Protein 1
Amino acid sequence: MNSKSANKITYQIPVGPIHPALKEPVQFEFEIEGERIIDVDVSVGHVHRSVEWAGTRRNPIQILYLAERICGICSYCHPMAFSLATERAAEIDVPERAQYIRVIHQELERICSHVLWAGVAAHEIGFDSVLFLTWQIREKALDLTEYLTGNRVTKGITMIGGVRRDITKDMYPKIMEVMKYFKDNFEKIRKIFLDDKTFKLRTQGCGILTKEDALKLCACGPTTRASGVKKDVRVDQPYFAFGDLDFDYITPDILTGEVNGDVYDRIIVRLLEVKGSIDLIEQCLDKMPSGDIVSEEKIAKILSILKKVNGEGIGRMEAPRGEVFHYVKYNGNESPHHWKVRAPTYNNILPWIPMLKGNQIADIPIVAASTDPCMSCTNRVAIIDNGKKYQLDKQKLYELSVEKTRRLMK
Amino acid sequence: MAKGLPKSFKKSLWVYHCNSGSCNGCDIEIIAALCPRYDVERFGIKLVGSPRHADVLLVTGPVTRQMSEKVKRIYEQMPDPKAVICVGNCGNTGDVFYEAYNLVGPIDNILPVDIYVIGCPPRPENIINGVAKAWVKLETLEAK
């Protein structure tokens, strides 16, 4: 042992593109010394479906449905950001009532997404009962989504210049009932995630992203707010009706008084955001004015307006994972000349490198999941041990993670 | 589904889920089917971590160029008898991505698909129905 320790060997571990903690194929290259991670490299591009290219061959109404299928979890943010960009390019005014309905749907999606994430995070450290508990709560949010939009996942609610369905007075009791259900269950979830010994042991001091790194690597959304950077498009550049509503940046020091930037802080930020979203929906229901829900009802008319547009627009929104950015340029043709999408995970991939460095192999799933990457998963790891290759699949990696939880609990 | 199901209960189905470039919509509905509201584990159906343990391959997504080799490899690693279920419209037909340059799908260009589950994304009930149909197929394969 003593003689060997003088020349330490590092191992290369490729993870993915079928990978444990991610929801989209992505490939990692880890450099490992014993159990410690020394270096990480990330390569993406396995889910490239040429969406932007296809968009330049379709008309703006068709693009709404294409944009919805960029990501199934943010299926509201992408078409909405696209229509924001288009409205800016074509100078279309959105009715006041539609602005409030847009906020309600956005915050509902945020609740769905954060509760989903909480379940996935619990699963990654081997706490499956919490996965089932949170997903049961999430079903309530999906029921409400279905009640308001007609669909569970892809909502089809967006229209350029407004929304497609109104929220009428007789829907209020059902919305209030679901909000009450969330509030009743919030305390239970908070207790499990913030006070439970297992969670504290696995998440505190793990996967740290410092404020400097977060700024340097342009992280966004809850990932950067958990490192103490006050950045939220809803506050910085209010869109929809956010200017009229009362809320503020959510950083972990609101609850604990300090910012560590670890996985635990990211859990705090997301939990508080769920609470903030419930509050925002209630404010919207109170303040919603009466009026139209869309500036122009006839789709053929919108299309003929958009055909004549010559100009460009930018749409920025705070999606559940961070800032989503759409740029669109019209040239007076039926379809846009150029369309560019920048999803929040794009910014949140590079922060993985400082987060993972120095952690153990068993921490990979929870740290990678902690930025809530919007990707899909394939699950195989091959460890190259002095040229001999043996495989570590998702099961094995997951077992390693569960084992570490047990070890810590002893 | 009802026909042949009582007989089929003698064996639990283990499912391997492979994402070939889908948008996550189908994937979250698959997990929703495993969670308390729909709870397919009461039938012994569960997701496994390795294709070598699986009876059924659930494929989602339109199969991007980079993923096509990997999807094939996963299929080859599964033991016989096996069934392939394609979940979601984009795997079935291409759906909104039909003309995209980076796709080699639909999935039946690459794998022999047994059951097509439609919807974008399909509801969990629909996915469970698809798995139950795969069950019947595996039973008939085993009887031969």
Protein 2
Amino acid sequence: MTDLTPVLTATWDAEESWKLSTYESHGGYGALKKALGMEPGDIIQMVKDSGLRGRGGAGFPTGMKWGFLPPDDGGPRYLVVNADESEPGTCKDIPTMLSAPQILIEGVAITSFAIGCNHAFIYLRGEVTHVYRRLLQAVREAYEAGHLGKNIHGSGFDLDVTVHAGAGAYICGEETALLDSLEGRRGQPRLKPPFPAVAGLYARPTVVNNVESVSSVPAIVDRGVEWFTAMGTERSKGMGIFSLSGHVTRPGQYEAPLGITLRELIDMAGGMRDGKKLKFWTPGGSSTPIFTDEHLDTPLDYESVGAAGSMLGTRALQIFDETTCVVRVVTRWTEFYKHESCGKCTPCREGTFWLTQILKRVEGGRGTEADIQQLLDTCESILGRAFCALGDGATSSISSSVKLFREEYERHVTEGCCPFDHAASALFDYETKAIEEAHA
Amino acid sequence: MTATPEKAAAVDTVSLTIDGKEVSVAKGTLIIRAAEQVGIDIPRFCDHPALKPAGACRQCLVDVASPGPDGNLRAFPKPQPSCAMTVSEGMVVNTQHTSEAADKAQKGVMELLLINHPLDCPVCDKGGECPLQNQALSNGRPESRFIDVKRVFEKPLALSSEILLDRERCILCQRCTRFSKEIAGDAFIDLQNRGAMQQIGTFNEEVLDFDGYEPIGVAAEDESGKAFSSYYSGNTVQICPVGALTSAAYRFRSRPFDLISSPGIAEHDSSGAAIRVDHRRGKILRRLADQDMVVNEDWVTDKDRFAFAWQNLSDRITRPLVRGEDGELHEASWPDALAAAAAGLKAATEGDTAQGAAVLPGGRVTLEDAYAYGKFARVALGTNDVDARTRVASDEEQAFLGATVAGTGMGVTFGDLEKAPAVLLAGFEAEDEGGVVFLRLRKSLGRQQVFTIAPFATRGSEKLNATLIPTAPGGEGKAFAAIKASTDAAEALKAEGSVIVVGERLAGSPGAFTQALALAKRTGARLAWIPRRAGERGALEAGALPDLLPGGRDVASASARQTVAEAWGVASLPETPGRDAAAIIADAAAGKVGALVVGGVTPSDLTGPMGEALARTPFVVSLEVRRGEVAEHADVVLPVAPPSEKAGTFVNWEGRLRGFATAIKTDAMGDHRVLDLLARELGVDLKTGTVADANEQLAALGAPAKGERPAAPKVDAAKVDAKPGASVVLASWHQLVDEGALQDGEPYLAGTGRTAVARLSAKTAEAAGATEGVVTVASAHGSLELPVVVTEGMADGVVWVPTKSPGAWVAQELGVEPGALVTVKGGVA
């Protein structure tokens, strides 16, 4: 049985956990002071040795990303924290910044020191104004305490941190779209190369890291590589926040070593709702192919999830029990992608538009057998052909659900309606008519 | 000689294989370009060779494999956009011809592109020449699998009076927005909204249904309050790969397969842009930019593209007209009209009391026409009173042109301008007066320092990131003189390849040409004279200026006269120096000219008393395309062909010969042929009956011998006393789109012109009590009332107004040239 390993979440239940004083009373900013006494190159090596991989979904080794920066040419280089958490089901960065914003700021300071950045940016999802206020306050407190600003703790190192609120676009979580948006342009992904490490923000070398990745750095510096590598699996080291949502008794954030299984997590969450049976789930948010109860014991690390045909992604575990109509869930997700497609490339823009219409027809019982094949064909026309990963992500749930639950799609066609009781799957009082009218 | 042979620039090449064919291309080449070089066509929509890659449409996906660090070929897991990926050594590319995956990817993209496309080809202007239609036909599915609801938009959306957008046809390739941003610098349109509702537009809140808040930023509108007010907007229509962007002028007018396409040269400015004239049953339906990489590349101005209606308006003259006893013009046969014209000219030039005849060819005729006018004046009329410069002109300018421009062949070229590390502009607004010259300069944005001697920084200068040297008109000579060592401009111009561009307006500024030559000598920069009108350089080369014979030979030089006389087979040429256009007009208005031969001259463009000159001259012969103001005073009107109905050569500002053939065959004759016939009637054989005849003679004359040119001018630079007060210095130039005669009959183009305003510096406006509202600009002759725009950084004591924009016909209303003093007062007089 794997145990929980609260690191980022350790202070969430403390009184006024978001305050600097609370963070410091729990040992906060010790890592920064330690880091400022180290050689920047040693910090980078330390993070490389820790095996920390990007927690934003792709799992790219964080230390290696820092190492891609070209040698210092005297000009500015930037750290940009990707806090545009928007993936359906993902709920880890926003609670981190809400409950313990200082851990992120300490991580930003250490990372900036390591990569030679004097101005870091936190690009926050625009809708979460309460988190925006928390971050602004936290940055202010950090400046006042001398953790940010000029000559931090007498080290000679200067760092400014700017918190920027986006305008509410999923695509701005894609790092180059984020950079364009941060520069004040339309948030659409850039052509690569050049990669951000070479020409990122304002065409300068830039590291873009996820909130959780950066927030993991202080603990690595503080407690050492061995502590970190003791957690996790062979190639997926350390701990991570697993966000459980849906039909479990106690949904929420569970910080545990990578490699934990869903079975263990569901146990921690008090089991399935009302003892119902697990039907399907996402390992890494709505952009990852869905799993079923066959995968309850798949270790949740990058390699094992990948080998089982999905992706660890953001560890957003959306759990659906047997009362749920898979067609209905997939339709809602696809509507999300259609709404969030930036429109730049043809496959994603047109494909999600088409998929949504087909799915709505099938879900409403107005579909045909040919529609199911059309869904797969259209997904094929998007997958691997879109400009960025958003297009690929839009197809995952469709292709995987048709593969796993084809007969359910067919039932919608043959029965001419959705065979499920929508109220049964709801977690709240559900008046079918009112809600479905509002949805239409 | 210690000259070393120029080293051929070593180009790094990369070898790769495309569809099994080996190809070596320059490093950094895009796969799609490399494929073109071996004749492999990869379908594409967003790709355009002149624009930066977008990778947006995904139509050009191909299979790519390249060697990894171990040297083994590694295939990319996904098909790659060939328009955005550069080649690398040993790369293996398989296009739709050899890769099933690439073919499938392309077919998938094609299907997706069509789901929201209306497929209204039968009523779409692009039908028949549409890349999307062609590709859908060759590679698309015969039947659509899309049975759901298409996205629809209200149509069309007028981005400007000329450019219309049918959003539902748009495939969002971003060619238009990239052109506007990258090439023209007029980012009035951009992508807006997202997903399937993403659309091109001008941030019009009514279109976008903004809820209570307004869009912000420069994209909202231009300074005149007009959206998409770009001089180059028509290029977006041409590069649109579908029928989304159309022009109001051409919309629903014809089918591409009904059109005959003829190459041509634009007649609107001195750049000589290559155009394609599309016509049907003798009528021009549209004009397009033709690719000419050394001149206009892929682009033309909206004026070159849209302003062609003038030649087929109801006032077109097709038969000669002779004024009868009743005082009215009557149609006449060619023999009768020529006889009448010859008789009138003979009367004016023969006999003791004869006052002589003078010739005003106008600045828009071809090289051959100008040659015929010059030769006609000197041989048939026995006078040097011929001047194509129906604009501000001076003897200094003539000496400058004769000494350094005429007969020098190709000088500074478009390519030289592009490569110049520094460019100084004086008396020349690249965007308004140079057309595609502006685009070439803008192409070098960031690599080139631009300085401009002008009264204020225009939007065009700002787009070139130009440094303004604020100067009142007339002060250009002093401004040149002030560019001495240690000034930024002097330092910049010393870099090899730098160019000083002087415009024709400097003729109104005594000493300016003299000082420009001195500055060029001082810095080593090359000098380029860029006049505004298409016929200016040709007229200069052909000898249609009073003191200049063909090739820049000085009339005052006996040997030059001798050379030309021999070539023309006459005993001698007139020695008396000729009068320039302004003097001819002034003398004619005073009743001192016996006859006038007038070509393409618009009296309202002239500050001189042209109306009176025409009225008081006993005999006027007009050679015109349209029956205009000159015809109303003419005794004989001889119809001539517009450029599309004749062959000829425009000499562009580079000195490049821009020959064109007849696009539309009609009975109309070029000026050179009409003059040839008229000369015959006078007993002289001009031998200008054909374009070839004229060119043969010009070629035989060749360049002038040493000593046959005039000396370079030496004129003291004028001092201009421009200060805020009751009297200020007038500054003015033609905006590209205005009310010039060649833009008549094209209301959609006119709608994209900039609003006429009067510009003043803050101090000047304050002194004149004209900081807002309407300002009255007045001369002794008349006045103009225009909205005032207080302009930051503008020279004090100067008022700028456009020369011939709606409500601002400066020559006609004020009757003075730029540089003159005018009064400025707030409010309506």
